[in-house]
């Protein structure tokens, strides 16, 4: 084998190996975090995130994706912050939060913000997630016009998550787009105890809540959706009965959210 042939083979092998590597987006670990505050403390929590927490997250290797507050009181409009972070790995997330918690600036900011009383009513809820194979890449975008976001959580019948994913992949997402909905991302939890085998979590955006409700009304009446739903549920519903099956929370982005 001459030198030219050898180098050509090495080049091809390198190309094949590189092509087989997962995209950076696919390798990220996402984390959904939900905070519930004591009465009257949501503004203090938002101020702490705006003035300190988000910047310190980035300092310690945590990527801020989006921060939202529910629109409706029943969903926590007065006491709830919902946000999504990205990490290089679970191990990186653990190391980042350890460094963040030990940061003197964070400790000082936390102490100052809680001089009038503790902010959180309970420990934060944390769900680590992976993007589905049909999810668009998460993009940090802002809109010139104010828009609302909708977080939807589907709890499936055991053994039906793959069928739900297939329906989204082959039908639902294109029909969402057809009826004016925009996709942010689709995830499944990575831990079994948090729904790795039974749960789909995704976020959409709409021009307004009213527009979102109208889009879903048109979507549900679409003949293609009616057919796809019926065919996918010949052996029974893919999701649990309500109210456990599908939960929708309409949200507005905070003024410090990267995605708005």
List keywords for this structure.
8 helices, Alpha-Beta Plaits, 40% helix
Can you walk me through this structure?
This protein is of the alpha+beta class and 260 residues long. The chain has two domains: 24-128, Alpha-Beta Plaits (2-Layer Sandwich), CATH 3.30.70; 132-253, Alpha-Beta Plaits (2-Layer Sandwich). 40% of the residues lie in helices and 24% in strands. It has eight helices and eight strands; from the N terminus they run ααβαββααββαββααβ. The protein has helices at residues 3-20, 24-27, 42-59, 90-102, 104-113, 161-178, 209-221, 223-232, and strands spanning 29-36, 63-70, 80-87, 125-131, 148-155, 182-189, 199-206, 246-253. It has an eight-stranded antiparallel β-barrel, surrounded by four helices. Helix 3 (42-59) runs antiparallel to helix 5 (104-113) and helix 6 packs antiparallel against helix 8. It is globular, with a radius of gyration of 21 Å. The protein starts with a helix and ends in a 7-residue tail after the last strand. Residues 1-25 have low confidence and may be disordered.
Topology, please?
Blueprint: H1 3-20, H2 24-27, E1 29-36, H3 42-59, E2 63-70, E3 80-87, H4 90-102, H5 104-113, E4 125-131, E5 148-155, H6 161-178, E6 182-189, E7 199-206, H7 209-221, H8 223-232, E8 246-253
Antiparallel strand pairs: 1-3, 1-4, 2-3, 2-8, 4-6, 5-7, 5-8, 6-7
Helix pairs in contact: 3-5, 6-8
């Amino acid at each position: 084998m001459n030198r030219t042939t050898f180098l050509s083979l090495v080049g091809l092998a390198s190309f094949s190996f590189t092509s087989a590597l997962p995209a950076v987006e696919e390798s990220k670990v996402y984390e959904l975090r939900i905070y519930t505050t004591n009465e009257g403390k949501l503004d203090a929590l938002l101020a702490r995130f705006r003035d300190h927490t988000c910047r310190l997250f980035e300092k310690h290797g945590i990527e801020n994706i989006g921060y939202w507050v529910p629109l409706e009181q029943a969903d926590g409009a007065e006491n709830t912050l919902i946000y999504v972070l990205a990490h290089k790995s679970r191990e990186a997330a653990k190391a980042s939060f350890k460094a963040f918690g030990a940061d003197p600036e964070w400790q000082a900011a936390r102490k100052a913000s809680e001089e009038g009383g503790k902010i959180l009513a309970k420990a934060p809820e944390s769900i680590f997630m992976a993007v589905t194979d049909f999810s668009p890449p998460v993009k940090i975008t802002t809109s010139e016009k104010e828009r609302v976001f909708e977080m939807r959580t589907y709890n499936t019948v055991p053994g039906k998550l793959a069928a739900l994913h297939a329906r989204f992949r082959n039908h639902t997402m294109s029909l969402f787009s057809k009826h004016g909905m925009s996709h942010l991302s689709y995830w499944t939890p990575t831990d079994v105890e948090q729904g790795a085998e039974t749960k789909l979590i995704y976020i959409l955006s709409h021009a307004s809540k009213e527009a979102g409700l109208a889009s879903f009304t048109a979507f549900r009446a679409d003949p293609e959706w009616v057919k796809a739903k019926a065919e996918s549920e010949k052996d029974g519903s893919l999701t649990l009965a309500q109210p456990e099956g599908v939960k929708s929370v309409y949200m507005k982005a905070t003024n410090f959210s990267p995605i708005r």
